Amino acid sequence: xxLKTAKIFVMPLGGKxxxxxxxxxxxxxxxIRKVLSKKIVMKFLPKLYFIKxxxxxxxxxxxxxxxxxxx
Length: 71
Prior knowledge:
alpha+beta; 3 helices; 2 strands
């Protein structure tokens, strides 16, 4: 609610090496924040938290369940 933190859900193209990419994003989050600070005018620039986006896996699971019930 105070906009001091931002969760960023990440899924690389193809879904491979997601953990490695998230670690690199976390490592260089200060650079990303620096670039954002020049592009966005805010009282506080939020701290960035990178999280693996698992919504595609969940959507695929739901889709499989729907297909099973339609058979």
